[in-house]
Amino acid sequence: MGDSAGGNLVAQLLSHILHPVPSLGYDIVDIPIINPEIKLGGVFVLSPWANIIPDEMKTHNGGTWKTNHKYDIVTKSTLAYVGNRVLEAVRRRPAVLEVLYPYLTHAGMRKDWWDGLEQRVGRVLVSAGEFEVMRDDIVEFGRVLGRVHRDVEVMVVEGGVHDDPMFDFLYGDEVEKEARRELKRIVKWTRDVFCSL
């Protein structure tokens, strides 16, 4: 499970499982290859940061980037700032950024990138808030995964913002029962994944 930037890290892990990151040289430690016999029971990404490359956000002036900016708790400018900070060291070496690019951004990924995912992961749950600025990117990420994996569920939380089900969990009794519907769905999904192992 990963939320927000952690959701991006989960997607990076899945990318590495399918396409081991090659040796990058410089002073960068090689990333160990993950045993190809291992199959994860399930992966849940809550409001995953599907596009960590801030320069590409310049093209995101429509859709939910435009309609949801006044409702969400995360803004486009915040994501661009943090994304630039994360990528600062990588940008100093353009050859490294070129190699790592498909591991960092999952919006607009090449169509065959996720081939083989179903053999490595049992189930996938992708969640976005209805009023989240990244909703369109997240839903598209889920659709792309769904093209190569028959057990991908994309859940859009009605009235939700970035990481919304987490707030339901944290505030528990203070949240209306109807609003907790998605949290219950996530808990059931998680239980079903663990009980099937």
Write a short abstract of this structure:
The chain is α/β, with parallel strands linked by helices and 197 residues long. The chain is 46% helix and 12% strand.
Using only C-alpha atoms, the radius of gyration works out to 17 Å
Question: What's the end-to-end separation, in Å?
Answer: 16 Å
Instruction: Assign the CATH topology.
Output: Rossmann fold
Number of self-contained structural domains:
1
Per CATH, the architecture is 3-Layer(aba) Sandwich
Organism: Panaeolus cyanescens
InterPro entries: AB_hydrolase_3, AB_hydrolase_fold, GDXG_lipolytic_enzyme
Domain Alpha/beta hydrolase fold-3: 1-163
Keywords: Hydrolase
What does this structure look like?
- InterPro entries: AB_hydrolase_3, AB_hydrolase_fold, GDXG_lipolytic_enzyme.
- Residues 1-163 form the Alpha/beta hydrolase fold-3 domain.
- The chain contains nine helices and four strands; from the N terminus they run βαβαααααβαβαα.
- The chain has a four-stranded parallel sheet, with helices on both faces.
- The chain has helices spanning 5-18, 54-57, 63-67, 76-91, 94-104, 117-120, 135-148, 164-171, 181-195, and strands at residues 2-3, 40-46, 121-129, 152-157.
- The longest helix has 16 residues, at 76-91.
- It has a single domain, classed as Rossmann fold.
